[in-house]
Amino acid sequence: MMYDAKWIVSGLIVFLCLVTLPLWYTAAAGGLGYKAEPKIITEEKKCIEPAQFMRGEHMVLLNKWRDTVVRDGERIYVASDGEIYSMSLTKECMRCHSNKEEFCDVCHNYVGVVSPYCWDCHTYQGGVKK
Amino acid sequence: MRINRRKFLKITGVAALGLIAESKLDMLSKFDLTEALPEEKKALEAEQWGMAIDLGKCGDECRDCIEACHKVHNVPAFDNPKDEIFWLRTIGFEEAFPEQAHEFVKKGLAHKPVLTLCNHCRNPPCVKVCPTQATWLREDGIVMMDMHRCIGCRYCMAACPYGARSFNWRDPRPLIKEIDPEFPTRGKGVVEKCNFCAERLAIGKIPACVEACKGALIFGDLEDPNSEVRKALESSYSIRRKPGLGTEPKVYYIIRGE
Fold first, then answer.
1. Are A66 and B32 inside 8 Å of each other by CB?
2. Is B219 strand, coil or helix?
3. Which residues of chain A, if any, have pLDDT below 50?
4. Which of A37, B147, B171, B253 is 20–30 Å from B37 (CA)?
5. pTM to 2 decimals?
6. Contact residues, chain A, for B138 at CB < 8 Å
7. How far apart are CA B185 and CA B64, in angstroms?
């Protein structure tokens, strides 16, 4: 038999409660089951690559674009379906997704990947055609 | 599955056709890359980009090139000279050409403001010292900056004998008059300088300063004997800044005799 079982067990219970407090808090605030839903406002029929790929790999693609444009001076992207795009966050991505708050930030805030450095330098407001 | 002779031949035939088709498609897609762009948007290319600044034609008061450059590149206008950011700027003749300046130098030249910018050296000391290769020499002779890699150590600023680089001590955004979304701004903590408008050359435009200038700035391929810049250099006397250092600058200054 365990020594001081009542202290240990009750201590463990308190610990578990504290650790899972954020979950209870969210549940109490009615936030359980919340799903981040980025809003797409464009009239274009498709993204440069399938949505599934973009959801999972857009950061990889953007990193590749960055290196290709800056280091190699190559600016044309051939998508998997053969379409040609310019490798530009502001000129290509933001042409459709000019609603950064409703599109990028919704998910980024939800998963806690708050604001990658992109927007410290790159701009999207105004001047970008919708 | 049993494969008889006929089936085997069919399969290999189809496979061979597939291989041929794939290589042809590959060629097609490469062909498309260059053909897809309209003529006026094709990149301007050169073996070695270089510039000549005709000091005889460059007006002392004119600031058209500086303003054009700083506008398209979102360069902030800090009042405090310690925070100053510039891609182009004018400095006195004595300061720009300490080896050529002397007390009896040609009248009008002694105190003439000289337009200075990154010299895009053939042998750039900034590139040698950069610990992250954030600045490097491109094959076409442009000394390029990759802001994504710059860690703000400022070794390049110490190495550059021309003071062509500036450091972002503060967030530049609040001091940019009008942000042009076509070009990124910089963040706090990176070094910046003239890039010979690499982003404009890539879409078929000449550098913004040359476009804004009324004939004093000549830009082109130094390896092409028929280029405008080569012709300008061959027909007039020209000097470079601090040539004794061996950095081999590619910005030339034309001095007129009259």
1. no
2. strand
3. 127-130
4. B147
5. 0.80
6. 73
7. 21
